[in-house]
């Protein structure tokens, strides 16, 4: 915990951050123990990171011997190693340990904090260093990606991912817009701006000619973004273009992308390659930006009353045309229904919650719509992992959460002291107003784990209370920092407005209607914090013009091993998990059993329900699960998907406690109507949102449908007659070859007897474990007979191996087998041994199972630079259900037939198998897996790449 001590603070801040000399931060330990470094409290292990392209098997990235804590997942390890470690791969300068990465960032922050007078003593600085290190090490929170990319390196110390630019009605300004946007794209970030200052195509130039209008200039910016792309990579740049609803060209702007979508359909029907990434898609314009219309309260009132609305000239402000507000709003909804653009931003709400209106209005947002503040500004982000604050008894640890927010806000503010910025104007504005964007991830997992439906009063009450507490502590900490190093430079001019907004936040907190002890306790903590915030702020002002946003948390969400991103619910109940040593497995989300326990189900029933979910992908008709509990397990996609208004209501619950807005797209079914889109946009305004975007399934043509194309083609075919197939048992001959293996697992001794067909292929097993006549021996006999009969009926051995490897229970530990040195259970050992003895190399490689000699040969070849059989040894994901042998009978067809040899590489593709249709998500340009929604962007689970600003 940190607190201020000493005398009163100065009321103004200098440009270099110097402030009061008599007040300093006293930092107290929260997570750490004096005399023990955080690194000494964890167990470290070395891992090999080999990342491949899922489509063609090529190796995208490889670094061996990296060092991570044993509790970090394989996916988090892969993403941090490939994305955030600095230095050329294969050189001594390359980072190889998480310690190096965290030290590079944390020590830079601590040094800047000392230099700029934040800490009272050296001891306070050391405690701050240890606390920040512990939280990052244990995945309690993460800074946004630019911090990990740049801080502590020779590169410019850019810490922000979110930028807002500005453009005026001059050719010089327009060309400068192209230049500044290009520089930001080159650095791997995105930007947004409002084009409403540019004269419309219905107005005259000083020379007497007609102006081109903003839509015309959008073509040039779109071409630039499509050429530069982002960070020199293959994915498109991230940008936002906003136009005010009273601009005379607003109708052309609304229809811009919808008309291009018509062009895509026509070209596709003519035989051109119009899939995303196709060679002919480049002829389509305006595809590199998200478009949003900025609507005013005046316009929305005209819409409600069915009245006329005036479009105004840009230079004089006079009305040059009247339009029917309902008709214009319907065109906005129609275009969004057709192609998901434009989104909508509510200007009245945005500027009503603006802390610095005397310094300028808020006119635009970053590409993902969560950062909204002054033109030519930036915001650095950090997000907390909410699941880290859930106690074993199911209550939310509000006190620990508040102390964590204190530390994070302190670090975020320090970063502005040493940060570099892409343009001088952005640097000046950011240093003057010090915009921060603290947020969180894993809300969907938290709600499920506490037994709350995402679309429920209880779920919204808990989410609102947590967000209110986060905002209250962030602003209270900001006020305390103002007492140490002074308020932001623009505070004196905007003091009254800033105080008004703080009162609005506090008043909204009082309106939260709590339903359970959990959310009531969190709201009570938030109430106390808002009182402290106002008291300290009245004395010192605030250090930061804004404090919070809700970002997509794409890559950093994977870094923290979060099940859900940002404010999103879970994508689906069944996910894909990468395994140590290669391969992957299909798992049910770990929050599901926790939620079932909270709801009162006994362990035996929890196990049965989880098994059912693993097989079917949903909870409908799960054995013993009460129908009234189905809603707790509703997800963003699947058989029980959350209704669109459920997403909007959740956004409305937390919006009053955010300085900025929320990055989120409301998914709507393909059957949704234009009227429903219109109602969603209208309700967003009524409920007090700042921005909203929708996506209707299959509304875009330029999507890589992959398997979905063939699926749709088959829908038009006439139904085939149903033919029933029954499996036939292939018995073993009286005399057959066999082998017996003695083994030891964790000190337990046993024997494995395996019999095979004369023409090769395992046909039976017998396992002796435990004393004869004991319960364990009897269970193993029954288990052996069950597996043997299954093998003889044609169930492939690799299917059994994929199910039983990595199964965890005692006895477990070291074995006496040189090929399988450690086993997580007896069954894990047995089926790994059977795979090594009876499966071909290619199938074992898919499962990540190799002999000691094969592993040695691989390592030797890799380090010597020699050739290695990448087809067999590369890390790849195995089949969800391996194909049966040629002599096995065909399975009976089902109503939703699932391919038996379909390879999947992400949770989205796994979900497609359960749904039987393709999801509208792009393929990752880096590793080829299908991405998943994350806020208003897309995220790749395989390599951590995002389609927007990360």
The average pLDDT is 85
How is the quaternary structure best described? single chain
Uncertain segments are 4-21, 230-235, 703-720, 863-901
C-alpha termini separation: 29 Å
Count of discrete alpha- or pi-helical segments spanning 4 or more residues: 29
Helical content band: 25-40%
Looking at the structure, what is the overall shape? globular
Find the count of extended strands (DSSP E, 2+ residues).
25
Number of domains: 3
What value does the Rg take, in angstroms? 29 Å
Strand residue content: 15-25%
Given the helix and strand composition, which structural class is it? Answer: alpha/beta
Give a quick account of the main beta sheet: strands, pairing sense, barrel closure: 10 strands, mixed
Pfam family, one: TSCPD
Function: Catalyzes the reduction of ribonucleotides to deoxyribonucleotides. May function to provide a pool of deoxyribonucleotide precursors for DNA repair during oxygen limitation and/or for immediate growth after restoration of oxygen.
Enzyme class: oxidoreductase
Domain Ribonucleotide reductase class II vitamin B12-dependent N-terminal: 49-139
